[in-house]
Amino acid sequence: MNTLLQFAELVLHIDKFLGVFIHQYGAWVYAVLFLIVFCETGLVILPFLPGDSLLFIGGAFCATGEMHLELLIFLLLAASISGNSLNFAIGKAIGPKVFNTHIPVLERFLDRAALQKTHDFYEKHGGKTLVLARFIPVVRTFAPFVAGVSAMRFTRFQFFNVAGALFWVLLLVLLGYFFGNIPFIRQYLNVIVLVGIGAAIVPILIGALWKLLRGKSSAGAVHKPGNNR
């Protein structure tokens, strides 16, 4: 519980954390930001790292002269592109092996038809998914992994991987650069972070709940006595 509280404190006050780190360790902050973004996008087990906040606050520190804008953008682009590429490679490597297993216990839970549907979806809509997922916490970590599992074409994946990284990094870093040091935004940054996370996650939860309810209602309609022949 204490660990969760400490992590929440870090996410909500990431500006103070970065400020202290810069003053104590200087240029090492670039390595830390690179590592966090790389791990969030590259390791499917670490979807909770605060990527959006770091990009925005990094831009704000660039505006005060404490960090270099061009260097930060270059490193974050490298981290996000290489992280997604690693995640894709992991999904592509383990996905077929898992779904082609003949272990009875696993076969009961794995749906090969669903894998084929996922592959078809990513062939049609994978580009939009990869770009938009960059702005949705948790989803941006799983999207490249699922693209790999579904065997999305590598060249198509990389095109949208790079496009999404450019859009994500440039937008958030430059927003932080131009607006991150406005007193009102600085004062209520933790609230803005929470609103941003909520705005990204709540629609997904509502959509999932709606699909679940529709599925249940459809199943109920099929099993009504009047529908049986």
From TrEMBL:
Q: Which UniProt keywords apply?
A: Cell membrane, Membrane, Transmembrane, Transmembrane helix
- Origin: domain of life: Bacteria
How does the protein associate with the membrane?
Multi-pass membrane protein
Annotated membrane-spanning segments are 27-49, 159-179, 191-210
The cellular component terms of Gene Ontology attached to this UniProt record, alphabetical and capped at eight, are: plasma membrane
- State a single Pfam family of this protein: VTT_dom
Give its localization: Cell membrane
Its predominant location is membrane
Give every VTT domain span: 49-177
For this chain, the family text in UniProt reads: Belongs to the DedA family.
Q: Which PANTHER family match?
A: INNER MEMBRANE PROTEIN DEDA-RELATED, TRANSMEMBRANE PROTEIN
Protein name, per record: VTT domain-containing protein
Please tell me the species this chain comes from.
Answer: Trinickia terrae
